[in-house]
């Protein structure tokens, strides 16, 4: 079963959806405290000129790929979460949609949802014991 189909199946579980919402809120609070000067520079440039969306998305894609290549699982998850949160925040205040941004959103969902589902399953199993 491909990742998109698994995600659709997982979204049918209301408890999982609640867990996802809680975790996303936690990560937004955590990630918002961590600064990346290069990202901030591109984000400020985008605030002034919408054409900076392409280099901004390119940088986020680079950060996602870098995170996915991490051998340390904790660092890999941290990096993926960082990009995920930045894309969520970017989506809140922009109406610009590009193919690159949409592709990044899809790739992020395919990266973050299995992480969330694994966490959810581990947490559920602990509660059963």
Helix content: over 70%
Cα(first) to Cα(last) distance is 29 Å
User: What portion of the residues fall into strands of 2 or more residues?
Assistant: under 5%
- Which structural class do you get from the secondary structure elements? mainly alpha
Taken from the alpha-carbon principal axes, the silhouette is globular
Could you tell me the number of beta strands? 0
The Rg value, from CA coordinates, equals 16 Å
Number of helical runs?
A: 6
Order of helices and strands: HHHHHH
Q: Please give the largest β-sheet.
A: none
How would you summarize this macromolecular structure in one to three sentences?
With 129 residues, this protein is mainly α. Helix content is 81%, strand content 0%.
